[in-house]
Structures are given as structure tokens and as C-alpha cells.
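Problem: given the chain below (355 residues), write out its structure.
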Amino acid sequence: MLPGLAQNYAAARAVLSEDVWDYYEAGSGQEVTLGEAERAWRSYRFRPRVLRDVSSVDLATDLLGTRVSSPFVVAPMAFHALASTDGECATVAGSGDAGALSVVSTRASRTVEDIASAATGPWWFQAYLMRDRGLTEALVQRAAAAGARAIVLTVDTPYVGRKNKVVGVRFAVPEDQYLINLAQHLLPGAVGRESAEQDPSMTPEVIGRLADISGLPVVVKGLLRGDEAQRCVDAGAAGVVVSNHGGRQLDRAVPSALALPDVLQAVGGRVPVLVDGGIRSGLDALVALTLGASAVLVGRPVLWALAAGGRDAVDRTLRELTEDLRHVMAVAGAARVGDLDPSMVMISPGSTGGL
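Solution.
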């Protein structure tokens, strides 16, 4: 873990209440998948190129038509107001300051419009298909109107995974915060939390439906298999995210670092492939980009930064990650992300199954 990230981790642990800390940090089940995430990236080894002009390293990346100066993306995470009074408004401002794209969660603790007003860079909106599908449709239309450039549909949560560190499945957020973006769209007499739970009957047709009603590309998040990624692309997905939901859904699911090659091979370059899960350094990101990912998402380290120092700390954290990636890319012999290819990385011969 980079020094700045480690400092934020310690600071966040000190200032957050125990129940909030446990909610943010918890994994599902016995937390096997959670524990494997970081180690899986470290199981790869590089085959660097030499005698290349790396006097200047350009990290600029194109994501569905949006040019960003960094391939780091802030992952969608719920209830940022538990970490900072400014909540997601501070997060999107800090990430934009750093030249990074943000993905705003359906479970945000500030309104979509307030978050959009605070944004200093591009952002996407993460959607769950809720039991009342009208809630999802209303939210993605609001996000599109507010300036979101894509919809990120999370598909790995037909039910929210059980976490031993948390009573039930999530932190007991007050009703007004939980429904801050949803209350105005509830049907008369509806029970808000029940209507807003994920719909376990979701099928691939929803990808095209959300694209149609939002007018935006839909990126599908939560894939660990190549054949599932291919199904989503065939159904109209404009991109996919390899993810096991930060180890918070099915415990003992494969780490994203090990699932990424299969998804990349199946997609075959038809759409961008992003990845998250345990990214803690430029070296981790370099593995992902070298394998063929278009960008990497960072989750918990952004929450640590938010708790430790708000907008400015989010900015510093993303800049630290970006500069670390710039350095290791140069040492590996690549001046641009496009110079990277899978021949430059391999699983360590001493690694057991990549872990």
C-alpha cells in the first residue's frame, strides 16, 4: 500500500465510529474473497521492455468517448456522508480535481443534482434494478439530465451479501438518507426500503431498456466469467467491469485479478473492460492495464481519504496513485497506456493458483 493510502487508512480508522468502519471494510461470509483481492495482483510478474523513450509518460485514457487524464476511476460506493458531511459532493469534486472519473452510487447520501453541481470532472451513474423498476428508470433519467455520461448497471447483487461484521446486510442508515434520491418517486402507500431493494429476477433485457430510457451507454459491473461478459455485450452492454463487489457478495468468489484475462479474451476488444478489487498501487494498476483493462476502479481507499481529509485528501490520493503508475510504467518501458500489452506480464511461477 502506498504511504498516503496507509496514512489515510489509519486516520479513517481513528475518526470513524466502529460500526461505520466495519460497514465500509466488511466482506461477506468468512471474508476469504476480501482477503485475497490484494494478494492476487501481487501474484503477477512483469517482463519490462528497455531502450524505449520514456522521458514523458502519458496516462490519458478514453472511456466511452470521454477523455480523462488518469485511468483511475472512483468506484461506486454507498453513503459517503457516513465518512464526511459533504458526502459524495466532496468525492466527485476531489476526483475531478485529480483528473479522474467518478461513478456515483444509487445509494448516494446526497441528491443526484447536488452531486452533479459539485462535480469538477466527468461522472457516471451506478444503477441497481430495484423491485419497483420505476425507481430505477426515474433515477437514470435524472442522472442523464444532470450530466452523467454513462450508466453502470450492477448485476452481482440479486440479494445483498451477508456480512458477519454488520447486523443484517448493511449499515442502518436513517430513512431520509436511504431514500434521499428515491422518496419522490415512490408509489402511494409503498414501503420505501422494500421498493428499493434489488430485483432478483433481473435478466439481460434490462441492459437495452436502461440504454433506451437514459440515452446513455450502459456498462455492466460485477462480472467474473468470460461467457457472462459475452452475454452482456450481446445484449447491448457498451462496457463491462470485472468485479466481485469488493468481496462483499459471494464469499470465495475468484479475485478480479485472476478473472480479468478470461473476460478480456471473451470480449475480444469489442467494448472496454474495466476492473476493480484490491487496487492499492500503481503496480496493481499496471498489471490490469498490461493485461488489457481500459481503466481500474478504486473503492475503499477513496473512502479512507474522504474520512481523513475530505475533498483535498481524495484529490491527493488519486494523484498519488496516478503518479505511482506513471513511474512504474516508465520503468516497465511504456510511455503510453497503448504501449502496454499482455506479453509484458505473467503469473509468477512460484504462485499457487495466483494466490
